[in-house]
Fold this sequence. Notes:
Cholesterol Oxidase, domain 2; 25 strands; seven-stranded antiparallel sheet; 2 domains; seven-stranded mixed sheet; about 25% helix
Amino acid sequence: MSAYDLVIVGAGSAGCVLANRLSQDPSRRVLLVEAGGGHRHPLLHIPAGWAANFKNPKVDWGYSTEPEAQLNGRSIYWPRGKVLGGSSAINGMVYIRGVPLDYERWAQAGATGWSYDDVLPYFRKAEAQQRVDDEFHGVDGPLYVEDVRDKREAHEAFLQGMQEVGIPRNDDFNGRDQAGGGYYQFNQHVGRRWSTASAYLDPVRSRSNLDVVTHTKAHRVTFEGKRVTGVVLEHERGGVRHVEAAHVALCGGSINSPQLLELSGVGDGERLQELGIEVVHHLPDVGEHLQDHLISKAVYGTRDEHSINREVQGWRLAPTALRWLLTRGGPLTTGSAPVGGFWYTREGLEAPDIQIHFASGATLYNNQGRIKAMPIPAMTAVADQNRPESTGSLHITSTDPHAPPRIRASYLDSEVDRKTLIDGLRLVVSIFESQAMAPFVTERIAPQVNVDSDDELLDYIRGDAVTSYHPTSTCRIGSVVDPDLSVKGVSGLSVVDASVMPYVVSGNTNAATIMIAEKAAEQHLFQSEPL
């Protein structure tokens, strides 16, 4: 391979955006590198296939944390996309931006130019909103945002139950106010998953100045002094080669980007020297300040007609799949949760601190650790803490680029986090046990504890809680990258993905990651400074 103007490492939620936008100039040679493969498999396009992709090594990195002290010593599985589209190809597709407070916190933390007013134009630029074109939404972008296609009586009952406990109806969580309950919107196009590979990459694959290589892992970024010279790549069939580049953009996400920085000699100098890695630049915050959303669930039994469980397993799966194939309708169009909302666990908060997800189905893990529908009719709702105070870290433990980093999420280290999740789960139980939900529930399956007791609920959470798949902040703006997303102390290297968030946003992170890439791309296209 000859020299490139830009090498993008990681064809995920951010990388596909950069590849599209930065190859618009035909004089700029761009290489997009992806460790996984293409995104042709049907389960990558059927919305309900998201769970089936977890722990599939062809499309999922399948990381796990170290044993978590506050979660009974459990190691928490972290799915991350290893495929064109990255985690946008295997996630639950829920389109949530966060709240203005999130971005004001970013700006206050040193992320100049990342306030809510600064980022809103890039959310609008990306969006092809089904409902409305207004001051908050765009309709001309490549990223389709569509309404739930499979609405059920139980969904409306749950929303009525939310109103019973004081949570008002809200039809737009990404508009003027996030607080309230309603239907989520998904990144789908006519009932089909719409990842960034579909939205941004597929339409421009034929550009002569854009090369896309799959099944290729980056070993390290190379430097001459502190100036980037390229990247070392290895195809899975063998063969290591160096590709020259004027600029390298890391888009590997909150795990792979700090991992690659450390493998390249950018990180805490003492830690790198202990591993025998030559230090290019001492940057101690690489891999630090890790944040993630933690969720805990309530599960209730119901009758067959109210649960989608019977429709997605056994012989009934065949007509359900045929319905999706012919009409793009039915339960296979459902992402992780069609209904939910945002609310407060205590007074005095500027924005909701809990996100709620409800689905008229319930899952469990089989003997292989894969998600499958429960064999009984049931429904699930989860409480998800919006703005955790606990922070963790992740770091490499060897010079082997194929070895996963050590991840310490440090969930629930903060007393505030513990109390918030306790109160959030209690709120979910109260919705399930509202008058509106009475015709739909038969029994509480979980939690089987006294929900009025903080201690008993916390014990349940310690054994139940899992990730909401939203790791961020391991290359945060201010301590690892500058506000223009260039890595501090070196030249020709940027990080563009969820790892640059100073704090995790209040809700699902995919929309914000795409916004980050749109903003980074426009800065590079229309300003004189390098990416």
